[in-house]
Recover the amino acids of this structure.
DNA sequence: CGAATTTGACCTGCGC
DNA sequence: GCGCAGGTCAAATTCG
């Protein structure tokens, strides 16, 4: 997918959103969170709007809910990933009352080699040599790390770091070009979990937070977190194995549709396998038009 | 006191 | 080759 296509997608998404008049209650920011009165966490939002029967609402299938859009980063030319969602001219347009959760996935892509922006192995990687403190960063240049599936979504929120049930440790922050808002980098604190996320605020709509997840959790939600995160989701969502179902809320977005790739034209199919757990759903769904691309059939099928 | 955050330096890839 | 921008590291600092 080229930058333009990527951009177009978001424009369309916004347009679509407007047309549907979606909005009122998004998955975002509501002032009635259990723990934090200032906002509703993503987890809370999912919980509140979610059981599988009502996900369709949560995902914009009903007029009163937020909308989820997906897109797949085919060949991320210059990492047009979510990072750029808020960073350049391709800004998303959200209606004041709506939450657009757009997901961009770039799965796997071992082939993104040349492009893969570094992704250096977590420090202390096996090359054994942490030479001097900072000198060792140039490790294994030949080795291209596979890129994790990545998906982003936008959430209207006053807080940058949305609670999603997992514990994150911030490991960096950078100013983003063309945006007055910095981008924060978080890493899952669970050992051996390599999931990362980036959080930035849209410069066009400061109320919109763009969160990009990279990788998949290989562990259940921490039970201790904010009391009840683990209890918020059905067992299938807590399963470590991606094949058994999303292991964390955002993985729901993974179910989106590989064929957004096809739309994009380029490099589409190469990502399909990364969505394999969900392809079956895709194939099962009747024709819901765009919705089938956006919403997993398992949600759709519950429709009355 | 341990964990989390901040922040400046460093590294890498890309475009010119 | 150079400069820019994104991403990461890790020491210092702050927080619980």
């Amino acid at each position: 997918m080229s930058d333009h296509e990527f951009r177009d997608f978001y424009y369309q998404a916004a347009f679509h959103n407007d047309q549907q008049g979606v909005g009122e209650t998004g998955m975002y920011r509501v002032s009635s969170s259990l723990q934090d009165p200032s906002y509703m966490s993503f987890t809370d939002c999912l919980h509140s709007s979610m059981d599988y029967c009502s996900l369709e609402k949560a995902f914009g299938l009903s007029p009163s809910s937020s909308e989820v859009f997906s897109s797949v980063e085919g060949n991320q030319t210059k990492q047009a990933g979510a990072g750029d969602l808020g960073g350049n001219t391709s800004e998303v347009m959200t209606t004041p009352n709506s939450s657009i959760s757009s997901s961009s996935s770039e799965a796997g892509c071992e082939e993104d080699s040349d492009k893969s922006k570094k992704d250096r192995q977590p420090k202390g990687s096996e090359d054994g040599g942490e030479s001097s403190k900072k000198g060792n960063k140039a490790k294994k240049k030949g080795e291209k790390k596979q890129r994790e599936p990545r998906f982003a979504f936008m959430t209207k929120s006053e807080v940058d770091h949305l609670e999603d049930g997992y514990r994150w440790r911030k490991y960096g922050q950078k100013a983003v070009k063309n945006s007055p808002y910095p981008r924060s980098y978080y890493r899952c604190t669970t050992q051996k979990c390599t999931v990362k996320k980036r959080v930035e605020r849209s410069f066009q709509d400061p109320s919109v937070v763009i969160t990009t997840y990279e990788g998949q959790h290989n562990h259940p939600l921490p039970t201790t977190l904010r009391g009840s995160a683990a209890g918020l989701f059905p067992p299938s969502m807590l399963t470590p194995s991606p094949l058994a179902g999303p292991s964390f809320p955002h993985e729901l977005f993974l179910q989106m549709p590989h064929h957004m790739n096809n739309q994009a034209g380029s490099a589409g199919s190469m990502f399909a396998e990364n969505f394999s757990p969900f392809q079956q759903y895709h194939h099962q769904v009747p024709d819901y038009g765009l919705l089938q691309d956006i919403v997993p059939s398992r949600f759709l099928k519950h429709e009355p």
Residues 183 and 299 of chain A are 33 Å apart (CA to CA). Residues 77-79, 114-118, 120, 133-135, 137-138, 141, 169-173, 189 of chain A lie near DNA strand B (CB under 10 Å from a C1').
